[in-house]
Amino acid sequence: xxxxxxxxxxxxxxxxxxxxxxxxxxxxxxxxxxxxxxxxxxxxxxxxxxxxxxxxxxxxxxxxxxxxxxxxxxxxxxxxxxxxxxxxxxxxxxxxxxxxxxxxxxxxxxxxxxxxxxxxxxxxxxxxxxxxxxxxxxxxxxxxxxxxxxxxxxxxxxxxxxxxxxxxxxxxxxxxxxxxxxxxxxxxxxxxxxxxxxxxxxxxxxxxxxxxxxxxxxxxxxxxxxxxxxxxxxxxxxxxxxxxxxxxxxxxxxxxxxxxxxxxxxxxxxxxxxxxxxxxxxxxxxxxxxxxxxxxxxxxxxxxxxxxxxxxxxxxxxxxxxxxxxxxxxxxxxxxxxxxxxxxxxxxxxxxxxxxxxxxxxxxxxxxxxxxxxxxxxxxxxxxxxxxxxxxxxxxxxxxxxxxxxxxxxxxxxxxxxxxxxxxxxxxxxxxxxxxxxxxxxxxxxxxxxxxxxxxxxxxxxxxxxxxxxxxxxxxxxxxxxxxxxxxxxxxxxxxxxxxxxxxxxxxxxxxxxxxxxxxxxxxxxxxxxxxxxxxxxxxxxxxxxxxxxxxxxxxxxxxxxxxxxxxxxxxxxxxxxxxxxxxxxxxxxxxxxxxxxxxxxxxxxxxxxxxxxxxxxxxxxxxxxxxxxxxx
Length: 633
Description:
Blueprint: H1 2-19, H2 32-37, H3 48-56, H4 65-78, H5 82-108, H6 111-123, H7 128-132, H8 137-159, H9 162-176, H10 185-194, H11 211-222, H12 224-244, H13 255-274, E1 283-284, H14 291-311, H15 316-329, E2 341-343, H16 351-366, H17 373-398, H18 402-412, H19 417-429, H20 433-446, H21 451-463, H22 467-480, H23 485-497, H24 501-514, H25 519-531, H26 535-548, H27 553-565, H28 569-582, H29 587-599, H30 603-616, H31 621-629
Antiparallel strand pairs: 1-2
Helix pairs in contact: 1-5, 1-6, 3-4, 4-5, 4-8, 5-6, 5-8, 6-16, 6-17, 8-9, 9-12, 10-15, 13-14, 14-15, 15-16, 18-19, 19-20, 20-21, 21-22, 21-23, 22-23, 23-24, 23-25, 24-25, 25-26, 25-27, 27-28, 27-29, 28-29, 29-30, 30-31
């Protein structure tokens, strides 16, 4: 018993120590805005309206109210400072590792193999994405709930008490409400019934040979409520993904190509488990897969499966571990294609547990006759865990911010238009507009159908005052995606810059009809309405923007610029302060705050902002001009 406490403590300490560096990481511009930083409901923290929204929304193409409530709780506790959000994910990951260790000890009474499974789970670089990416909170949260549900089920299986069964059912429901990938949980329970619970075996040698079949039927009947929740969750998930436009159509991802990619992906995940290198945030879906690779992967998967069947009676954990891996990956293997990825590191968070179980128990059994067995296993195990911890430590560095993860992903993948676009957004936010413009152009060279890239090019042209060029980009974006709310908003801003106020108002109203929760179009519409002399309506939109609040650096800057144009410099200053709090290195926020401070006759503070601009972006001549105007160097 004492060794279990020691191993539990060691597991928690090493997990927290390795992942603690995420406390210095930023939010990233891939999904984090939709889940936290740019979500107008989540950013208000825990509210009654937010609670109701969490249970009715399919935002981000998913229905996962428990995940939404988790993010709202983080905002309530830490605001929009990323350190707290990251550390909650780290703690949940450590809890998941501990729960896995304690579960395997309960099931097998084997402390050391259980520890190595949990340590591999905790320290493997493939799991960095689930922990270091705030938007993937649903991974660690759903896993914790799944493991708690399994603990309850084990209590029921060993004692027969209905409380354990009901607890497992309730926690499974909560887990589905965190991430619907848990739909395979009833199968996991059946696999645990086979090994190590051994609930399929006859009660005594005298029982007839068909009793295992009857036992299986009883176990299936026992899982009926779990399967019903699975079906319900699957239906809601498919609805949410269709509604959100996340599910790829057959013309974009033909079924044959999906099957080919899935077969290869099953094997690639195993390869990455054994040799975790060149890990990125997104691996593009292929245009084709070589036939030799598909056939080779299929034959190798069949060979592994035949070996598992061949040795399954002698080593039953091989059956449980292998089928755990195959089945839990099935919802995300790409047969139902969601998003633009061919595979994703985060999808291995739960499936690899099965392979870790099979490997650790197999090594334990195979080494039973070795001389110096304990020393060899201890030394080899320590070397593996130290290596994985070091690789995870290095992998975490790539997740420091949007620039680092995008740059690394582009280095290890090809033709990755989604990440090329996001890299451009990251450069744009840092003030490198020329670099961003080049990357958005590169995005369109890879994928000419990217409405988002056209929209981003339009935004840069508006910033440069090139309104005719911006108009062309926004029109191309809307030709591709007619209900693109951000493109409509940009079009409205462009038309206003061209002096076409009536058309600008119509475009901005169309944007707000599609998405009424973004403050920027309200600000731009208010400005256009003021120009048209519709002061009362303009004030209404300003109030709505104020209620929504600056949910992003860009929104805060836009709001501040709008207020500064009206001479409301004190209010503008508040907005720029908020933008800098969200992004301390924002060139635009510092420059605009410097201008406002200068107009408020606070030259020393203004000069500090202009120096910050030059520190981040040395080529910004406007900042040098302001310093000269203020008599500063």
